[in-house]
Specification:
heterodimer; A: alpha/beta; six-stranded mixed beta sheet; four-stranded antiparallel beta sheet; 9 helices; 36% helix; globular; B: alpha+beta; seven-stranded mixed beta sheet; 13 helices; elongated; binds adenosine-5'-triphosphate; binds magnesium ion
């Protein structure tokens, strides 16, 4: 950590990936190498987008970043912790406390209302009932869903579902939000609203956000764009020189 | 995640698929229901039968004539058990037999004193009757051997009769009463008074004053009044505490087999209350076992049904499981969620089964009761069986829910999230 911190202008790096390789069907004739040595680092408070053709390995990479999967080779350090060395329970806890997932298909639990959906990560982290409900209500309010708390997912529009999903991703106040095509199933206008929420979370709360998108306009709004092709990072574009993010992040932290 | 939260989660899951949950529970409901029903009926029957028998005396053995030829003719005086033969027998079985009872029913009568009266049923008994029936007296004593042998006109009457005939401050003991039996007036001296207790088996109409109570007189006197032959077609023997009534019954049969060896028409047979009870209990136990096996099979089928539906549920909810895992649910949390769900299905099924079983048990017993005239006995729920049923149904849930739950717990989160 210290050696990262002493790059004074750079913020602390929250994701450190070095030579990550992901293979499927290992030791079979149809073995597939999907990620072919990914090395990247993401600063705390950065809004990063990942673009690339379909099947290039974006989601596979995202799964590894989100501790849903372990790399076949290479090292991945998340907030100073080595993911390879973790057992299943430890990985669950990392997902629970450090990661907030936002999916293209929302993945709200059916038959469970918006409030309960937002409470879910807190249920698994053992936050007491009262506190859980209080926080879930607060989060729904920040995404403008306070008047739909008792609604089932089937009673919500796509944009509303995604807002609930974002509130849920924020439940345990994670370091990183991973959003895999979060606007993919939404129209432009609702997609815009979702993006605005991400910007707000990034700006005001200093959340590190990783966004996978096929939409170049949305990618252009972020701090940095990584382009992946056939399992390799083939391009990096820095859009916002973020000398001033530090202040904002501190503001965000103070606000919490 | 607390157990309560798991339970609430499971219930909300089941609520959304009520019909399916109910159908799944059916096997459990039938299984648990039939066990509870049969145990309720069985216990009530056993209690009723035992109760009825013990009111006759569980240690009593009926020793009586049976027709060797199978014809139902009236035995002649020489076929009957003579007093001498009974006494010889009593002497021979002295240590094993506490008492023997002779009975001769005379019929109904009315004790009258001017305008005062009391209805009685006159019964001739011997001194052994008091021992065999564990007869308690309020005042005085029971008939003794001398009176029984001497054909004396002595009587043991109820307090009801005393109230009807005597002023409250007068002792009835030693008093004479006139009793009209079959249009003849007989005079008896009261030697003892017992307390009348309304029995569940008899029905008394009219006012309390008209209640018909037993009046016990010496059996020899009864025979004289009724004009019946000497000798008895049956006696009741009370086995002593140390003797086994069933065993003793066989010994008695053996003993009389010699005595009646020459008799072509009649022999002696014994009925021990205990052996009859044992027989009934055996029948009940066999019945219980048979039903239990059926119940066991239905519980097994029910359990497999629960497992099946849980497997379906796991498959259906693959994405949900993936999502939960992505949100940080440990494998154990997923496993517990599904086990609790299976357990709740079984528990609800079990509770419905218990309620249905009790209803069937109570209903069934009341039908049997009226059919078998076992008035005065009631079915009661067996708490221990209910507790076992509850625990057992939960156990089935855990047992048959474990495999699907474990399958859910072991799902790969990515595969689960990609599941269409
Ligand atoms: N579990 C798996 N087993 C085998 N192959 C897999 C598995 N997961 C992903 N792949 C393959 O890896 C490649 C990359 O998939 P991935 O989902 O990462 O692509 P993507 O960049 O997210 O594409 P899209 O933009 O369409 O979502 C695909 O060819 C896919 O078939
Ligand atoms: Mg993808």
């Amino acid at each position: 950590m210290d050696n990262l911190d002493n790059l004074d202008t750079e913020k602390r790096s929250i994701i450190e990936m070095d030579g990550v390789i992901k293979r499927f069907y290992i030791d079979t004739p149809n073995e597939l190498t999907i990620l072919k040595g990914i090395s990247m680092s993401v600063r705390e408070g950065e809004f990063l987008s990942i673009v690339g053709a379909s099947g290039s390995g974006k989601s596979t990479l995202m799964n590894i970043i989100g501790a849903l999967d372990r790399p076949t080779e290479g090292t991945y350090i998340l907030g100073g912790e080595n993911i390879q060395k973790m057992n299943t329970n430890k990985l669950s806890d990392v997902r629970n406390r450090r990661i907030g997932f936002v999916f293209q298909t929302f993945n709200l639990i059916p038959r469970t209302n918006a409030l309960k959906n937002v409470e879910l990560p807190m249920l698994y982290s053992g936050i007491p009932f009262m506190e859980r409900t209080r926080r879930a209500k607060e989060l729904l309010k920040t995404v403008g869903m306070e008047d739909r708390m008792k609604h089932l997912p089937s009673e919500l529009s796509g944009g509303q579902k995604q807002r609930v999903a974002i509130a849920r991703a924020m439940a345990n106040d994670p370091d990183i939000i991973l959003a895999d095509e979060p606007t993919g199933a939404l129209d432009t206008e609702t997609g815009r609203m979702v993006m605005d929420i991400f910007h707000k979370l990034n700006r005001e709360q200093g959340k590190t956000i990783l966004l996978i998108t096929h939409n170049p306009e949305l990618a252009a709004e972020t701090d940095r764009i990584l382009t992946i092709s056939d399992g390799e990072i083939i391009g990096e574009e820095i859009l916002n020189a973020t000398e001033d993010t530090g202040e904002i992040r501190e503001e965000g932290e103070a606000a919490q | 995640m607390s157990i309560i939260e798991n339970i609430l989660l499971a219930i909300s899951g089941l609520r959304s698929a009520k019909m399916r949950s109910l159908l799944t529970m059916l096997g459990i409901i039938i299984g648990i229901g039939s066990v509870i029903a049969i145990v309720t009926i069985g216990n009530a029957m056993t209690a009723a039968v035992t109760g009825q028998f013990s009111s006759f005396g569980i240690r009593n053995i009926d020793v009586g004539l049976y027709s060797k030829t199978g014809s139902y003719g009236t035995p002649s005086e020489s076929d009957l058990l003579s007093m001498e033969s009974i006494e010889r027998f009593a002497e021979r079985f002295a240590g094993k037999v506490d008492a023997y009872t002779l009975q001769e029913s005379v019929g109904m009568g009315t004790a009258k004193d001017g305008r005062k009266y009391a209805n009685v049923r006159v019964m001739g008994v011997n001194d052994g009757f008091a021992i065999a029936q564990n007869f308690k007296l309020q005042q005085g004593r029971f008939l003794n051997l001398r009176e029984v042998k001497g054909t004396k006109n002595m009587a043991v009457v109820s307090d009801r009769l005393v109230t009807n005939l005597f002023p409250p401050n007068q002792s009835p003991l030693g008093q004479e009463i006139k009793v009209t039996i079959m249009n003849e007036i007989h005079t008896f001296t009261i030697v003892g008074v017992y307390k009348y207790e309304a029995s569940a088996y008899e029905m008394n109409m009219g006012s309390e004053k008209d209640i018909m109570t037993m009046m016990y007189i010496p059996v020899s006197t009864a025979k004289r009044i009724a004009g019946t032959e000497e000798g008895y077609d049956y006696i009741t023997v009370t086995a002593s505490e140390t003797a086994d009534p069933t065993q003793l019954g066989m010994e008695i049969e053996e003993y009389f087999a010699k005595e009646y060896g020459r008799n072509q028409r009649y022999g002696i047979i014994t009925y021990s209350m205990q052996s009859m009870l044992t027989e009934i209990t055996t029948v009940m136990d066999t019945l219980k076992l048979a039903i239990s096996i059926i119940a066991g099979i239905s519980l097994l089928v029910g359990g497999i049904g629960v497992m099946n539906i849980m497997l379906v549920s796991v498959t259906e909810r693959t994405r949900e499981i993936g999502t939960r895992k992505a949100l940080g649910a440990r494998n154990s949390a997923i496993r517990i969620q599904f086990i609790v769900e299976a357990m709740i299905i079984c528990l609800i099924g079990g509770i419905i089964g218990i309620i249905l079983g009790l209803a069937m048990g109570f209903g069934g017993f009341s039908l049997m009761r009226s059919a078998m005239a076992l008035d005065g006995f009631n079915a009661s729920p067996d708490v221990s069986v209910i507790v076992v049923a509850v625990l057992f149904s939960m156990g089935i849930g855990v047992f048959f829910g474990y495999y699907p739950a474990n399958k859910a717990a072991k799902l790969d989160p990515i595969e689960a999230l990609r599941y269409e």
